[in-house]
Design a protein that fits this description.
Helix content of chain B: 55-70%
Order of helices and strands of chain A: HHHHHHH
Order of helices and strands of chain B: EEEHHHHHHHH
Largest sheet of chain B: 3 strands, antiparallel
Helix content of chain A: over 70%
Mean pLDDT of chain B: 90
Distance between the termini of chain A: 47 Å
Oligomer: heterodimer
Largest interface: A-B, 53 and 49 residues
Strand content of chain A: under 5%
Chain lengths: ~160, ~220
Amino acid sequence: MWNDIFVNIFEDGFFAAIAAIGFSSISNTPRRAYLTCALTAAVGHAIRYVLTLPELGGVHIILASTVASFAVGMFAVLFASCIKCPAEVCFFPALLPMIPGMYAYRTIEALLSCLYHSQEEVFVHYFYLFAYNGITCAFIILGMVIGATVPVFLLKKLSFTATR
Amino acid sequence: MAEAFGVSLDIFIMPAHVTISVWNTDRTYAEMAQRKTASCGISFDLNTRLSQLSWEVADNRLGLPAAKERFERIQVTKPTGKWEVLILTGFANAAFCRLFGGDPFAMLIVLVSTLAGYRLKQIMLEDGRDVRLTFLCASFFSASLSAGGYIFSIGSTPELALGTSVLYLIPGVPYINSVSDMIYRHYLCAFSRFLDAAVLTACLSVGLCTGMLLLGLKWF
């Protein structure tokens, strides 16, 4: 069982790293930051995966994302000066694979479904999906940003002088 | 940086404008300027270069003409090559599909639909089309292509291919920026960025739903 879990954790980190490089290229990240972004994203996503595993307590996705983002922020601040980029350049792309995209568009889909169905029971079901997806999405992003920003202020000098 | 030039600065940031007032040292005289922000898209490369320039001014006392020349050079920095972005985004979205539990067939479907949808997005933006229409069309295109997996029952997770095929369009950076602005109490900017991102998400959802509706697929 543990062998499978370790393989899954490694796999999760590996694919998160590929996703981070790809999504960061859309935002014109400097090429020298790709590797750092990939490693940071891999660590962050793998931490979130471990925390949400039912075998290891099954922490709620909002708390897991906040803790993982804190790790992302720490990594980004510590390694930003090595590649002479602001810490934000490392942690923004690393956070992108954790953005709850599916929750975001399912919120809108549920809202559209509310308009499409006039029967009270069905309407209430879709309204529930709208509220559940929307609230979860908002709190995941809030937790992620707070988690990743805290290290920037904890290590203020290091993070603000990364490009010096 | 302002200290290096012997002045002090007040910066007032609005969603589409920036106002800067530059004060002399004893704060008895100020010059103000208001400009529209450049619509150059998100570029972490520009952020990095501007941050480096600010430290060079602060540490090496780079003069105003030299700093201005460096600034103008930074302004014409080339963005990442479009083919490089296209291929990396395709692989990124396929990897994303795997993170959600998609099988290799679903990953392949997502790769193809992302390449097609993202290329359409690039073409439409190059032609100067409205960004909201672009998101709607790209999402419709990607969703319709990836729905093929669902219709022809390719692989064991066609629903994941369909669900993740449009995720490359989620405006992640504006969402993060919006919450970041909120933490720094820049509520107007936060609200404006959030609405921008929400409108784009709505456009991609409409594109996805239209694709599914036309192909007769269930939404949830």
